[in-house]
Amino acid sequence: MKTQLVLCTSALAVALTGCAGMSDTQRNVGVGAGAGALGGAAIGAAVGNSRNAAAGAAIGAGVGALGGYLWSQRMEAQKRQMEQATQGTGIAVSQTANNELKLAIPSDAGFDTGRANIKPQLASVLDQFAGGLRNNPNAEVSIIGHTDSTGSDAINNPLSLERAASTRDFLVARGVPTQAIRIDGRGSREPVADNNSDAGRAKNRRVEIYVGERAQR
Q1: Which one in 30, 152, 165, 214 has a CA-CA gap of 20 to 30 Å to 1?
Q2: How confident is the model at residue 196 (pLDDT cuts 50, 70, 90)?
Q3: CA angle 41, 42, 46 (to 5 degrees)
Q4: Which strands sit side by side in the sheet containing 101-106, from one edge to the other?
Q5: Which domain holds residue 203?
Q6: DSSP tag of 71
Q7: Are residues 81 and 107 located together in one domain of the fold?
Q8: pTM
Q9: Domain count, the chain
Q10: For residue 20, what pLDDT is reported?
Q11: pLDDT (tens digit per residue) in 113-122
């Protein structure tokens, strides 16, 4: 049992060393596979024999390599499309560590103060965004609204949710399946900057959209 765990630990070390020179996506998959193998071996060993440890390592490597979501050519193409569509808007586009496409939308780029109606600039971006989502039947979308700490929770919590809901409704009206989207409003509870400055509050007023692609169902 100890031998199996030592071998899997060594495999993880080799995987980490071999990640030099890889792309971020390849590195995430490689590390995930190694970590999954180690975790799988530990589970197998816990139930009492080396065969279980070896089998657990193989299964764990497969699960770890998935990393939760896939980063397919389709996801990469949508990321490039959104980078072009958002130029000059203040909207940030990135790939998360969990292989999700993330759009960070400052509220100034998408909504008027205290309102949940989508402004024309954001509407133009979401029009193109919806096209990519329609072409990805395995996409899972999460839309989360945030506010700064100005005002009370009684105002901020519903406003953050209303902005997320407006974003969802806009996408659904353009053919994105309702069941593919979940929304949440977190008010001022998750700041990304200091609320004691105008610049910090501006960063905290935002809507974040996450898109992950699951394996073919």
Answers
A1: 30
A2: very high
A3: 115
A4: 92-95, 101-106, 206-213, 139-146, 181-185
A5: 73-213
A6: -
A7: yes
A8: 0.71
A9: 2
A10: 52
A11: 899 999 999 9
